[in-house]
Design brief:
With 231 residues, the chain is an all-alpha fold. Helix content is 68%, strand content 0%. It is built from 10 helices and no strands. Helix 1 (2-12) runs antiparallel to helix 2 and helix 6 packs antiparallel against helix 7 (133-148). The longest helix is centred in the N-terminal third of the chain and has 28 residues, at 47-74. The radius of gyration is 18 Å and the shape is globular.
Length: 231
């Protein structure tokens, strides 16, 4: 489902001047990457293996594919490995997450700590594309939420009545579409690259909107996990 939504959202990018397509685009982006990252965290419970394989499974492929793509689009063999292009930020973020998760989860209330770190880092405009640091920090709470989640938790999510979940999903979709179509907040906030000032927000408003975004993304993700049948 998520793979389909990624492709569908990229198709919609060509038609964002149409309000309906723009609404679908921001609704998808509000939860599909957070949920992908949640799944990555869920599959990272063996922290020793995560750290052991992080370099070979993520950093080396990142260097190879990010370099090839950079050469392809820039028509130059002089490329920077420090600024991920296109989709390759995900590989670099995964490398960092897999590398540090073993130690980070030893912190008490580690999900809350990662959340506060993200809210704090949004203040500074020098935390950006470089090494994908902004996205690494911004999406980290979802990764940790996936690590924390277990089969029992998923079973409890599945036990929520489907009609309630569907109504919640639809209502939140309407709220998301309204927020972005009325320019209450920029769709750039969904990507986790920009600080509050770049989004045209004051620090208090930026923190508030980012917190709301985390809440909405989490609820939307829960709804989707509940609505997708086990088989």
């Amino acid at each position: 489902v998520l793979l389909f939504l990624v492709v569908f959202a990229h198709i919609l990018e060509r038609f964002l001047e149409v309000k309906l397509y723009n609404s679908l685009y921001v609704i998808i982006y509000s939860f599909h990457m957070p949920l992908f990252i949640f799944i990555s965290g869920y599959l990272s419970k063996n922290t020793d293996r995560c750290r052991q394989n992080a370099f070979s499974n993520f950093f080396i492929p990142y260097i190879i594919f990010n370099t090839i793509y950079s050469i392809f689009i820039n028509k130059s063999i002089i490329v920077s490995i420090f600024n991920p292009v296109y989709i390759y930020w995900y590989m670099l973020c995964m490398f960092f997450w897999k590398l540090i998760i073993k130690d980070f989860v030893k912190i008490k209330y580690y999900i809350l700590v990662s959340l506060l770190l993200s809210l704090y880092c949004g203040i500074f405009d020098n935390i950006n594309w470089f090494l994908g640091i902004s996205r690494t920090i911004f999406f980290f709470p979802y990764f940790l939420l996936g690590y924390w989640c277990n089969n029992t938790t998923l079973d409890k999510l599945k036990s929520i009545p489907k009609y309630f979940t569907l109504i919640t999903f639809i209502l939140l979709s309407i709220v998301i579409a309204y927020m972005f179509n009325t320019n209450l907040i920029s769709d750039l906030s969904l990507f986790g690259n920009d600080c509050y000032s770049n989004l045209g927000l004051s620090i208090p408003k930026g923190i508030l909107y980012r917190m709301i975004q985390y809440i909405i993304s989490t609820i939307m993700g829960i709804c989707l996990l509940n609505l997708i049948p086990n088989n």
